[in-house]
Amino acid sequence: MNGWLARFPVRAAIGLVVPALLILWWHWRTSAQIATFAPPAAVGRALAELLHSGDLLRDTLSTLKRAFAGLAIGAPLGVAAGVAMGIWRPVDRTLGPLLHALRQVPMIGWLPLMGLWFGVGEGTELIVISMSAFFPSMLNSHAGVAQVERRYLDVGSILRFNTAQRIRFILLPAAMPLVLTGITQALAFSWIATIGTELLTGAGSGLGVAMSQAQVQQRLDVMLVVIAVTAALGFLINQIFRRLRQSLLRWQPSVQ
Amino acid sequence: MATRAFDYQILAQTGRTFRLERLPLSSFVAPLALLALWQLACLTGLFPPQVLVPPSGVAKALADMTASGELQRHVGDSLQRLLIGFVIGALAGMAFGATIALSQLAEAAFSPTFLTLWQVPVIAFVPMMVMFLGIDEPFKVAVVAIASFFPMALATFDGIRGVPRNWFEVAKIYRLRLFQLIRRILLPATVPAILTGLRISLTRAWVVLVAAELLAADSGIGQMMEMGRQLFQIDVVLAGVIVSGLIGFLLDRGARWIESRASRWRTA
Lengths: 256, 268
Prior knowledge:
Chain A is an all-alpha fold.
């Protein structure tokens, strides 16, 4: 195999070629006088400006706050619903079809309806973000509880566990990997839903609000800074949560 | 290749516990009871019609919009955008995924840029694309294409990298040319992964399209809901929610059906 390609410095250098070419092309395009194209250097200036004025910090914090508030509401409800549906068949029979029907609607598609009911603002955003966190938590917790091995439950019944003990000592530990997968997905979904709802409602502060303002003001430099921050934060949160998940599950032999 | 939370393999699994055809009758009790309760609450005047119209009102709105052809126009516009953008995005994604999977040099050159861009939620590209493309058709098609590109590229990459090495050696022994290699080995071996990628691309593209239409459009399901909201037509908004959910459901089902048909020979 191409041994020289496997070496890290070589790979890194090759990986930088494409971005470098893109930036060169971009620089050249801007010198050729195209109105909405901000030159690469302007992005650096915009970043400094946004950092200095504190706007970026404020927007980032309110987006994070929203996303985590939605996650804090939606994920526990989702896990509870999923576990309940996994344990009690009647709950699954009655609640399941309804929830699966609601799940089919694109989450952002709930915004107009929620906007009519609760007004366009913080509450509506929070509801939609919570819903985005709810469904992945529910689906994975349900799957996790539903696939618990029969013999574990048999041991439980030999030991005469009551329902609470069964949940605490058998179902939750056994379902934990999938529950945590669900929460990881919920995190990603609520992050995206937060950006989306902020873009659409544009109320208060937030990274999505900053993007839609940059669009109105035709500030490509600001836009790119905000997009980069969005991407970096999404990546970071996800990495942190993956680590967390792995350390929470280190007692499980099968976790990678 | 590194992954992010929106791992397409995880996405591929979600919803697998649910099968419509296996539902017993009792599972219709709760939704029907809810519908009855909803209708009753509206009839007794618990909710004024500005806040909640009864199911019969939503059905009437759907029937009216169908009779006037308005609904067909919105659905048709949305589906047309979805189709064009999806074909462009999925083909580009497949070509890109295959390129970086087959050539180590291409992988080294493109994958860092690709993975960086992948961290950006597609919806975050929307305002920037409005700046460049305006709010007309090209913008919406581009949103769909971008949303389909990334999962498709990854699925193709993983599919091809999953092909056992010795199959390539067999190809070498038979002196297959690149075209033959693709036709005889890569395509059949990667069909399941590619179909899963297509399904995820399609359903995600639909979600992103509805969001883009909510934000900026002159027609389409998303625009229909947004207009309904601005005009306080709650029946139109509810109809939009139902139709967009139904389309999403059918797209997912259809793709799953094709997936199970096309990869049946594998397990057989």
